[in-house]
Amino acid sequence: MELNTFTYFALMLFAALIAGKIVKKLKLPNVTGYLVIGLLIGPNCLRILTTELLDKMSIVTDFALGCIAFSIGAEFKISFLKKVGKAPIVIGVLEGLGAVTVVDGILLALGYDVTFALAMGAIASATAAASTLMIVKQYKSKGPVTNTLLPVVALDDAVALMAFGISMAIANVISSHGNASIGKLLVDPCIEIIGGLAFGALLGFIMVYAVKFYTGRGNRLAITIMMICLCVGISNMVGFSSLLACMMLSMVFVNFSKFREKIYEPLDRIVPPVYMMFFIISGASLDLNVLKSVGIVGVVYVVGRVVGKVLGAALGAKISKAPKVVSKYLGFTLVPQEGVAIGLATSAAAAFPEYGSKIRTVVLCGVVIYELVGPVITKTALMKAGEITEESTNKNKTAKKAVETKTATKTEKTDSETKTATRTVKTDSETKTATKTQ
Q1: Is residue 60 in some structural domain?
Q2: Mean of pLDDT values over 172-179
Q3: Is residue 436 part of a domain?
Q4: How far from 319 is each of 239, 300, 314, 326, CA to CA, in Å?
Q5: 95 within 8 A of 152, measured Cβ to Cβ
Q6: 3-state SS class at 74
Q7: Containing structural domain, residue 338
Q8: What is the DSSP string of 403-438?
Q9: How far is CA 414 from CA 400, 403, 419, in A?
Q10: What is the pLDDT of residue 44?
C-alpha cells in the first residue's frame, strides 16, 4: 500500500523530532540534525522519501522560504536601521562581492575559462537565509553580530542576483557560444529584483489596511498566511523574486502598522513544523555522490567563497565603523548556501550549456558541504562573539523546569487549601453537633 502525502508529512515531522533530541545531546544546531536525518531517509540512502515525492513537495519549500523571508523583513524597522546605520548595507554588498572576486580570481589564476570562472564567482555570492534564521531563533542570540547579520542576509539575495546578472552579461560577451542575449541577462535580474520589491510593497500596504478591518487573532493570522501565499504564488508566476517580495511585504507592514506584534507572534507559533519539513526535504535532496567528481574546482569554490565572504564582511565592517566583534565573526555566519545558489546554477547552465554539467555538480557539492557544516560554523561564530551562551542553549530546559515547578507548587497549594477547607468544615460540623447535644 502506497503512503499518501499526509502520512509522509507525519513521517518527516517524526524524523525531525527524533533528530532534534539527538543533536541536543551532541550540542549541535537543530538545522544540522534535520538535514542529516533528511539525507538518511532520502532517495540516496534509505529511500523512504523518493525523488518523485520530493518533486511534489515544492509547496512546502516555497511556503517555508516565504515565511523565512517574511520573518527577516521584520528586522528592517526604520528605527532599527537608523540605529545600526549604513553598516548592514556596506557589509552586505562587500561580502557578496568578496566571494565573487576571490572565486573568480583563483579560477582565472589557475587557467580556467573566463566564462566558467565568472559563472562560478557569481553563484558564490548567494547565502542561505533559512539556516541562518533558524540558528538565531533556536538559540535566541542577541548582540551586534546578530543585529547586523539579519539585515545582511536579507540584502544578500539582491546582491547575488545583481552580481549574477552582471557577471553573466560579461561572460556572454566574452563567450562566442552564449545562447542568451546580453539584454536578457541584464534585464531579467532587474525585473526579478525591482518587480519583487514593488509587488511586495504593494501587498504590504494592502495588509496594513486589512488588519485594521479584521480584528480577530484568527482572522489576522489568516490574512498573514494569505499574503505570504499570494506573494510567493504571483512572484513565481511572473518571474519576480519571491524572497525579496515577501521580505518587502513584511518590511512595509512592520513600519506602517501598529498591530505588528499581533501578527508576528501567532505566525512564529505555527511555522516551526513547516521549517522542520523544509529542512528534512532539503537534506533528502542532497546527493553525497557528487563529492567524488568535483576536483580542484570544488575545493576552490567551497574554500574561496568562505574566504571571500569573511574578508568582504571584515572590510565592510571596517569601512562602516562597525564594532570589532562584527568585523571578526560576521563573515563566518554567512557560510550556509542552498536554494538560491541552485537556481542560479540552473540559469548559468542554460546560458552556457557546454559548462552546464560542471557548474551544477560543483554548486551542488558546495551546497551539500555548506548545509551540513554551515549551521555549526554559524553557531560557533555567534558563541565566540558572546551572543550565544550556555544559558541561552539551556534556556528551554530551564523554562520547562520552571513551568513544572510552578505547576507542582500550585498543585501542592491547592491540596493544602482543600485539606484546610475539609478540616474547617469538619470542625464546624462537630461544633454544631456538640451544641445540639447540650
Answers
A1: yes
A2: 60
A3: no
A4: 35, 27, 9, 12
A5: yes
A6: coil
A7: 20-396
A8: HHHHHHHHHHHHHHHHHHHHHHHHHHHHHHHHHHH-
A9: 21, 16, 9
A10: 83
pLDDT tens per residue, range 102-135: 998 998 898 888 888 888 888 888 777 677 777 8
Q: What is the mean pLDDT of residues 255-281?
A: 87
Number of separate domains in the chain: 1
Q: Cell numbers 546578530 label which residue?
A: 146
54, HSE (Cβ side, Cα atoms, 13 Å): 20
CA distances from 310 to 100, 107, 320 (A): 12, 19, 15
Q: Does the residue 231 lie in any domain? A: yes
DSSP state of 57: T
Confidence of residue 2 (pLDDT cuts 50, 70, 90): confident
Answer whether 330's CB lies under 8 Å from 91's CB: yes
- Asked whether the predicted pLDDT for residue 393 surpasses 70, the reply is no
**Any idea what the Cα angle at residue 300 is, between residues 178 and 168, rounded to 5°?**
20
132 within some domain: yes
Of 8, 42, 59, 9, the residue nearest 283 (C-alpha): 42
User: In this structure, are residues 64 and 274 in contact, taking their beta carbons and an 8 Å threshold?
Assistant: yes
Distance CA 304, CA 221 (A): 43
- The owner of cell 529584483 is 193
Task: Supply the CATH number for residue 191's domain.
Answer: 1.20.1530.20
Can you tell me which residue has the cell 530546559? 397
Residue 107, sorted as left (phi over 0), alpha (psi -120 to 50) or beta, turns out to be: alpha
- In sequence order, the 6+-apart residues with CB closer than 8 A to the CB of 275 are 64, 67, 68, 130, 134
Between CA 42 and CA 37 the distance in angstroms is: 8
Place 11 in a pLDDT band, splitting at 50, 70 and 90.
Answer: very high
> Residue 227: is its pLDDT beyond 90?
yes
Segments of 147-204 assigned E as strands: none
Q: Counting beta carbons within 10 angstroms of the beta carbon of residue 191, is it exposed (0 to 12), middle (13 to 18) or buried (19 or more)? A: middle
